[in-house]
Specification:
The structure is a single chain. The protein has 524 residues and is an alpha+beta fold. It contains 13 helices and 14 strands.
Amino acid sequence: MSKRKFFLLIVLMSLSLIGIISIQAYYINNSVKNEKDRFTDNVKTALYYVSNTIQKREYSEYVYKLQDLISNNAVVDTASIRNLYVVQENQDSKETVVYRLGNLEENYKFSSPLFDIGLDTLSVKRVYNDRETKVYKDISNKKGDADLSTQQKLLLLDKISSTDEILFEDVYKDLAPRQPIRKRVSENEIKNLLQKKLHDLGIDIDFQFAIYGNDLATKVQSDDFEYDKASTFSVPIFQNQNDGSPYKLLVNFPDDSKFILSSIIGMILMSVIFTSIIIIAYSSALYQLVKQRKISEIKTDFINNMTHEFKTPIATINLALDSIRNPKIIEDKDKVMRYLNMIKEENKRMHAQVENVLRISKLEKNELNISKDRVELHDLIYDAITHVELIVEDRKGYIKTHFDAEQCTVLANETHFTNVIVNILDNAIKYSPNAPKIDVYTENVGTNILLKIKDQGSGMSKAAAKRVFEKFYREHTGNIHNVKGHGLGLAYVKRIVDDHQGYVSVESEKDKGSIFTIRLPLIS
């Protein structure tokens, strides 16, 4: 897959994930908003219900008292009749249709022992409502009515019918506000009414309430009520004749947020869980894509380097064989032996490369049998140095040892641990552009021995130092073949050191060389 397609795929996947998360967030936010609105509507409904119920209760109490007063031989102080007439006359049918809406008002004035409002006398208005529709046929031909005008005809019809109801609203709205608020309503009444109505509306959480007059607290309130403009609900209570009121019934809910979220918590949790799964799956897929792409690049690099590693010895072997076939050379035993030695060395070189790959493969599958014995680490270091000292001398370099460790007995596999040291030394030689200068140190630290291999080569970046022990990893230097290798040597080193319960690390700086440190536990 090309870089452009790979980048486009990641962008599309990322945009899709962002879109899904945004839609989920919008849906959750919308659901929370809808639940808040529904909660607010239900609370307002409950408050208006309580306000109206309390006002109706108070009004009923006044009606009962006023009825008792009027029935107690009260004398009408004044009376007045107010009527509205609508008259329609049909000349063809000789019919007259009269619609009448009438009010009879009776005013009473007397002293009141039933209302403790601080007044000597009390005026009460008693109102009778009357509605009537009548049809008259040829009303003008009735005896004695022939010369009546329309106005006189209406006066003739002006009679009050049965009483519909007794209205005391004016008296109630005038008298009730004179009472202290604590005498008009109690905390228990408000609490019981609110509790019942809220329960009917599905709101079963604690609440606090109060009645405020002219934006000031009254004595009618619950113990823990605290006014908060942002979260307190309010409706007017005890409205006056102008439908206004100085009093407000207020209520707030300490746990309203939890209650609102509780109704949709299941949906929110499911949404969060599924969104998290999508994010994890996306991250994992993206990680695998990037990892596979890197592995593909590393393997391509590995194949190219391995090809280069094999091409050189194969070409050398072919040249040596061609030279041996030459009749002039085949008779020269010294030259034949020289070419045969070259073939043997190049064959060993290829065999070592194959063995390195096989060892890593077996380590990955835990099939490599590593038996350990008591060995002297200094002896293993000397043995490893003999494998590379000819190459170092050929390049006019040196390997110096600085053995400061008094104890160097470890439990190790002689062959594999020697290969570990050889690989580090070989790495130091390959990455020294000039004559390789290598120093090997040992020292005791507690119950461990430290082995440090320091070179003065090209070094590596910090990013490369973190990944240098990964399989197939090689730092690119512009031309991947300028230093031979396949990225398996140091991976092998780490696996063997780990198997020996040791620890390996590297400190490096570009153009200043590297220091590889191996720590192994000592045995007595």
